[in-house]
Amino acid sequence: MLIKYVVITLLLLVNNPLLAGTLLPVTVQTSQYNISTSPTDPPIRLNQIQSWIIAINDPSGQPVQGLQFSVDGGMPAHKHGLPTQPRLTEETEPGKYIIDGVKFNMYGKWQIELTGINESDQFHQIIKIDIDHVNSN
């Protein structure tokens, strides 16, 4: 009988969107950009440095090329930043960017902040990620 209750509880936790973590890839849609991101080698691995791919398209689906941006982030609720200093390393193909040095050291609600560094670019996006036992290991 106890096993039955444990199984039902686990099913409710996994299928409840209020309790489940962010599914990969993480997507953000704004009036200017459609962004999709995930580790280059999923799943998210706690306490390991990973590279992430960020695909950026305009609303019509065309890749946004040639962006230069800084990478920052952290856990706003805990008032601390990322334990590493990730950086944009390359644009592997039009609109697909690699950031290296991403590390999450605990479960919870994180964000990655991308800020354009080109003079003519007003690029600024925040990607919210909820890391839990389902989307990480």
Round the mean pLDDT to the nearest integer and report it.
85
Going across the major beta sheet, what is the strand order? Answer: 1-2-3-7-6
Q: What global shape is seen? A: globular
Tally the helices: what do you get?
A: 1
Our Rg estimate from Cα atoms comes to: 17 Å
Provide an overview of this structure.
There is one protein chain. The chain is mainly beta and 137 residues long. The chain has a single domain (21-131), classed as Immunoglobulin-like (Sandwich), CATH 2.60.40.10. The chain has one helix and nine strands; from the N terminus they run H-E-E-E-E-E-E-E-E-E. A five-stranded antiparallel beta sheet has the order 1-2-3-7-6, with no helix packed on it. A four-stranded antiparallel beta sheet has the order 5-4-8-9, with no helix packed on it. The radius of gyration is 17 Å and the shape is globular. The two termini are 29 Å apart. Residues 4-20 have low confidence and may be disordered. Residues 33-114 form the YtkA-like domain. This is YtkA-like domain-containing protein. It comes from Photobacterium chitinilyticum.
Give a short overview.
With 137 residues, the chain is mostly beta strands. It has one helix and nine strands.
List keywords for this structure.
mainly beta, four-stranded antiparallel β-sheet, Immunoglobulin-like, single chain, YtkA-like domain-containing protein, five-stranded antiparallel β-sheet, 137 residues, YtkA-like_dom
